[in-house]
Structures are given as structure tokens and as C-alpha cells.
Amino acid sequence: MASEWTTMPLSDLVEDGRGISYGIVQPGADVPDGVPIIRVKDIRNGQIDSRNPLRVSPEIEAAYSRTRLKGGELLLTLVGTVGESAVAPASLAEWNTARAVAVIPVKNEVGAYWVRLAIQSPEIKARIDSRLNTTVQATLNLKDVAELPIILPPPTERDRIIQNIGSIDDKIELNRKMNETLEAMARALFKSWFVDFDPVRAKAEDRPTGLPDSIAALFPDSFEESPFGLVPSGWKVTGLDSIATFLNGLALQKYPATGADSLPAIKIAQLRAGSTSNADRVSSAIPAAYVVEDGDVLFSWSGSLECVVWTSGKGALNQHLFKVTSNQYPKWFYLRWVEYHLPDFRRVAAAKATTMGHIQRQHLTQALVVIPPPEIIEAAACHFEPLLDAQISAALENKNLAVMRDALLPKLISGEIRVDPMEGEG
Questions:
Q1: Sequence-ordered strand ranges (E) for 19-95
Q2: Domain 239-371 = CATH 3.20.19.10
Q3: Coil, strand, or helix at residue 96?
Q4: Cβ atoms within 10 Å of 190's Cβ, excluding its own
Q5: Which terminus of the chain has a lower count of CB atoms within 10 Å, N or C?
């Protein structure tokens, strides 16, 4: 570390009068009009997923005003997946957090973003790991959080590091937001064409479809009864497992790693985190069908029930995941149908009286899908495939950017690499 750099305990860097606190201990059942709170699962890779928060009653939340967000606080996960952090944006003002998330109101002169960078250093990560209580599940105490040693370069040096790392994080965030937009576009278009059948309804009512004539001509102008309800005339209805193959993963403990030639095991935790950094290693000699590559569709049939297009590198498919493929239908088509049925699958899983809810093969058969004629799927591909390709490309770019950032950050934080002053600085 550079000689002029100092280190201070995190407790000395927080706002006077607020301190470091954890959030709501017993939030209770979800209340539709309640106060949204951030949970551990909502914080990943420096970002906060605020799309589907748990909402608690105002009466419960009122007792936890100390962790009511103003915007700009550092949030740190304390239980389960410990050490994930993110800076709360101003848009989350008046939200709160769960018991397993610490709220750290860092002084403005230091800034929450700098502290977030500092706690990603190998030294602090190791310190956090050494202080975890793992009796039931990994837990970090607030006392240990308060004692974390935060490196403080001089303000000008700190600003340069923030600018360099921040530019990478900004690009990652830009790609992430772009992918959210592309995802919303794809889902809306899929629902319009293949669930609500808007082009068919328009033709049946002698209204413009809004589509090019060559594509509009492919859609019928009438409906017929089906197990799915009214569907376009001539379209087929079948089970989800008829349009794709759902390959269940392996019990990977039967394939222990040997030597350096191994693969990371992709389990539910890796699927949710979008990373194999903490994965177990297994033999690379597993059957080829169970090797996961970037671009594969993975579906966890137990636990949180997620469906993602995997972009975090080669790995081995665990038994709680499906790899979804098809020899007949394009990826965008079966991906969207799995996503369409996810809410129902989650309700089924939640209704099971087990520790980890799950669905069974029969539920894939019972989940109905509507299949248009091949010429419509072919025409639709011109719209859906570029959207999915762009999402995959942006996600892979983010993976590479994160690798570069994570390699650079420890060297900058330690002072091993010094950032040259920008032109024009005094």
C-alpha cells in the first residue's frame, strides 16, 4: 500500500446519528400495498433487483425507521450469501431492508461506492469469511461489519480509482438496462402474437394488424376452441414438453474432479448468482449432453424456479436443473413458453409441503402451449432472434468486463497499480 494511504474501521466512516443497522426481523406475509423491502436474493453483482420486492405492512415497517432508505446507503448481505453489496439508488428512498441486509449510511466525503469497492478487496473478503458464524447458515455479525478495515487513499487518488472502476461498472449497468429493455420487448411481442393473438383478433374484427402485409397474411382471421381456450384456427395445442427436451442434470458427486481437468458444477446457487466463482469442481469426463455452454437455456425445477439463458461459461449440469433444448423449434420460442408458465410452476412448488418446493414431469406435460404453422415461426424469428442474440452478446460482454474489473480492482485498492492523473489535473 502507498505510504500516504490510511485505513479506518468502517464504523468511523458512517453518518453521525444513523450507524450500521440491519432491517426488519419478521416482515410477515406479503402485503400488496405495503412498504417494499430489499432481501438478500435481490442483491447480486453490485446491483439491486427491485422488480418484485416483498412488501410489508406499514405498521411493521414503522418500527424500523433506522433502516428506512434515503438513497445512497451501502447495502451488505449478512446471511446466506454473505458479502454481496450494492449502493441504494435514490429511487429506493422510503424502502427498507430485511434482517439479513445491513444498511450502512456512509459519509458523503467518503462515499458508499468507495466502501463497496474496498470491501471487495481479497483481504476484506478473507476477513469476512473468517468471521462467519456457520452453525446454521453463514451469518455475519454487525460488530464484525463495523470493524472492517477500509483503505483510504488521498481523495484525488480515490477519485481516480472510482473513475476507472466506475467506468467499467457504468458500462456493465448500461448493458444490464439494455437487456431489461430487450427482454421486456421480447416478452410483450411474444404475448401479443402467441398468447393474446392480437394479429388474429385484428383480422377477425377487420382492423389493421400493424404488421407488414407479408407477415399479416400468414395469420388466420378466425378462432377455434381448444384446451387452451380460443386459439387461432389451424394452430395446435400441446404440452410444454412436446416442444422441447428437458434434460435433468446429474448427481455430480458421482463425478469427482481429478487433477486440473475439471468443470464447475452449475447448481441452483450458481444459476441465481450467474457465476461459478464459488462452485464445486467435478470431472470433465461427464457425458457431453450434461455439459453446459454459453447460450444454453437452464431451468431450475426446484427451489426458486428460475429460467435463464446461461452466459457464465462452461460447466456441469446439476440434478436440480434442466437443460432445455429442441430439435424442432427455435430457442426463443421454447424459452418464452417456459417463462410464460413460470408463475404457475412457482405456485405449484410453493404449495408443496417440503423444504424446497419443486415441480414434476407431469407439470411440464400439463403446461399447454400454442404452436402456429411453421411459416409464422419462421417469420417471427426475424423479430425474436436478434433480440435474444443481442441479450446474449451484452451478457457475455458484461462477463468479460467483470473479469477485467475484478482483476484490476485489488491492484488499485492496494496501491500496487497507481492511476496516472488525468490530463488537466493539478
A1: 21-22, 35-38, 43-44, 47-48, 54-56, 74-77, 85-87
A2: no
A3: strand
A4: 22
A5: C
pLDDT in tens, 21-46: 999 999 998 899 999 999 998 998 88
Structural domain boundaries in the chain = 6-152, 239-371
- The Cα–Cα gap between 79 and 82 comes to 5
Tell me the CA distances in angstroms from 2 to 5, 123, 416, 419, one per residue in order. 6, 16, 8, 12
What is residue 39's predicted lDDT score, i.e. its pLDDT? Answer: 95
User: What CA–CA distance (Å, rounded) separates 229 from 200?
Assistant: 14
Is 323 in contact with 296 (CB distance < 8 Å)? yes
Q: How confident is the model at residue 424 (pLDDT cuts 50, 70, 90)?
A: very low
Please check whether residue 76 is in contact with residue 83, taking contact to mean a CB–CB distance below 8 angstroms: yes
Q: Which CATH superfamily is domain 6-152 in?
A: DNA methylase specificity domains (3.90.220.20)
304 touches 272 (CB < 8 A): yes
Residue 121 · residue 82 · CB < 8 Å: no
Kindly state the average pLDDT of the residues 232-240.
98
Pairing of strands 74-77, 85-87: antiparallel
Which contiguous run of DSSP H or E holds residue 237?
strand 236-239
Counted residue by residue, the chain has a size of 426
Contact assessment for residue 413 and residue 151, using Cβ atoms and an 8 Å cutoff: yes
Average pLDDT for 218-235: 97
Q: Strands, DSSP E only, in 149-218? A: 149-152
Give the separation between CA 209 and CA 62, rounded to whole angstroms. Answer: 50
DSSP 218: T
**Mean pLDDT estimate for the chain:** 92
Please provide the DSSP assignment of 352-383 as one string: SSSSS-B--HHHHHHSEEEE--HHHHHHHHHH
pTM of the model: 0.85
Rounded to an integer, the average pLDDT of 62-72 is 96
Decide if pLDDT at 284 tops 70: yes
Is the pLDDT at 120 greater than 60? The verdict is: yes
**Can you read off the three cell numbers belonging to residue 359?**
415441480
Longest Cα–Cα distance in the chain: 78
Amino acid in the structure at residue 178: M
In whole angstroms, what is the distance from residue 293 CA to residue 58 CA?
Answer: 45
